[in-house]
Amino acid sequence: MSALSQSNTTNSATMDRIATLLDTIVLGNPSAASPAAPTTPATPAQPLPTSPPLPRSGSHIRPSPPPVYDGARSGGRAFWNACQLYFSLSVGQFADDHTRISWVLSYMQHGRAVDFVGRVFQYGSVKRAFPTWKDFASNFEKEFFLFDEVADAALTLESTAYFQNGRTIDEYIDSFKALWIKADYPDGRHLVLKFRRGMDPKLSRRLGSITTGRPDDSKIEDWLAIARSQDFIMRTEEDFHRRSAPTVPTASRPTAPIPMPVVAPMLRWRPTAPPTAPVSLWTSTGSADVLFRTTPVVDASSRGTSGATAQSALTCATSCQRNWMS
After folding, report:
1. Do residues 115 and 71 touch, judged by C-beta distance below 8 A?
2. Which DSSP string corresponds to 213-252?
3. pLDDT tens-digit series, residues 29-86
4. What three-state secondary structure class fits 201?
5. CB 198 within 8 A of CB 172
6. What is the pTM of this model?
7. What is the DSSP letter of 170?
């Protein structure tokens, strides 16, 4: 009889647990979903503390797609690196290699890139043109990468094309650093000399005059840092002296008009007519008689003096003719 009573008690406890689980499922309480130890019906089940949310995986990151590519060799590696970065952040997004190839081709929309896509589809499909991803990568490198980036960068460093030439020190350092990394130049005195040779002459002389705190001639990174700091100091000093230069005060203009002195007009010399030879009355008349006859005799009464007779006038004319001819 005691065994039967114990069996009924066990069955009753089991039914209570089943009822509790059904209530939990209906109410949607996940914290009490696991079976608990047998408790009395009057005691409510205590909710378990919720665990902190798990960090998101890489599949939830939305990477930026690569830019549209025009097929220029100078930008081929940059486009390829952008595609590789997208693939590394989008694991599981592409079903197979041919899906990835088609995705890359969708961003090749201008210039030589369009011709490359056209040649791909002349084969009928991407799978026939490139059986594997390795085949596509090899063809892309041959078609859109520079022929020899290492040699091209080395030739640029051996010329004057890398010089600063009016650029800022940051722009010069960035381009110089990219060239020496592509050319695979080792760090050392030779690289430091090239860096100082290409920078602005004023800044190069300033760095050469440093005696205290001078960086090691074989450490290019130290020279890059001190070049930035000295360039900043030099530009700050130039700006300070430019602003502190004294300005010459401008004279105030009077409002009333200033009387101007009257200047006499300048007399300009004008050449007169050249002197002419005196006209000889004897040559024009021919004799003293004619001159005497054509010359009016002034009456003594009209002159107010004792007049001269005609004979006296003729004698005077004859005497004058002799003096003239002599």
Report:
1. yes
2. TPPPTT-HHHHHHHHHHHHHHHHHHHHHHHHSS--PPPPP
3. 545 444 445 454 545 555 444 444 444 444 567 888 999 999 999 899 999 999 999 9
4. helix
5. yes
6. 0.48
7. H
